[in-house]
Amino acid sequence: MTHEDFDSLKKELSSNGVTLVAVSKTRSPEKILELYNFGQRDFGENYVQELTEKQPQLPGDIRWHFIGHLQRNKVKFIAPFIALIQSVDSEKLLREIDKEAKKNERTIDVLLQVHIADEDTKFGWDAGEIKAVLPKLSKFQNVRVKGLMGMASFSDDKEKVTSEFSDLHNLFLDCQKETDISWDTLSMGMSADYEMAIASGSTMVRIGSLLFGKRD
Ligand SMILES: *Cc1c(COP(=O)(O)O)cnc(C)c1O
Fold first, then answer.
1. By the 8 A CB rule, do 177 and 162 touch?
2. Is the entire prediction scored with pTM above 0.90?
3. Per-residue pLDDT reduced to its tens digit, 56-67
4. Gap from CA of 192 to ligand 1 centroid (Å)
5. Which residue of 41, 45, 74, 209 has the fewest C-beta atoms within 10 A of its own C-beta?
6. Residue 115: helix, strand or coil by DSSP?
């Protein structure tokens, strides 16, 4: 994407109060720097090993987001620096993040991943499970839950995608009412569907191919 196109995307997003996370999985540090030099600071990665290889090679003021399935035994590798873990899908994982955050004398921000698509390959909690975990969140003293993340079905059916996004938005609003901690982040929308996600109340989009071109 050219600098000009990037600026106009940023403008569109910020006029809606939406944060852009540039999804940089499979992209080289050089490609990431290109976007960094346009002013981008939030980058998202899916694999721990890839992230821990790139992170030391890139500027220290990048806010790294973890958006892939996270195994408990790998939390320790990202705990020292991760800005937001978006893909928390179990209480056991919350406990592990809490433990590693304590060791690093920090608090780690996370999102709870909700399963909204009809494909069963996607990880995450369903609405009932999210509501059940809410009362337990305060026991994790070094984890701050900021909101929810979800991925819609991979589909051309706009009504279906929009209805999945608005279900997630409604769940987000319900949870906001039930928690006294401030939830401010609803991460939904990717290259193909971010406009629908924003129309349904997204506050954070995760965009890869639109910024960097098609992945191999
Ligand atoms: C890869 C990925 C994205 C970005 O997808 P694009 O279609 O390239 O924008 C967003 N969110 C998650 C969880 C991903 O794995």
1. no
2. yes
3. 999 999 999 999
4. 9
5. 209
6. coil
List the one residue out of 98, 56, 49, 96 whose CA is nearest residue 77: 49
Digit-coded pLDDT (tens) for 6-43: 999 999 999 999 999 999 999 999 999 999 999 999 99
CA distances from 210 to 80, 110, 205, 215 (A): 30, 25, 12, 10
Place of tokens 């928390």: 88
- The residue to mutate among 19, 27, 67, having the most atoms of ligand 1 within 8 angstroms of its beta carbon, is 67
Task: Give the amino acid at 151.
Answer: M
If you count them, how many residues does the chain have?
A: 216
Query: How close is the Cα of 135 to the center of ligand 1, in Å?
Result: 30
Is the Cβ atom of 107 under 6 angstroms away from ligand 1?
Answer: no
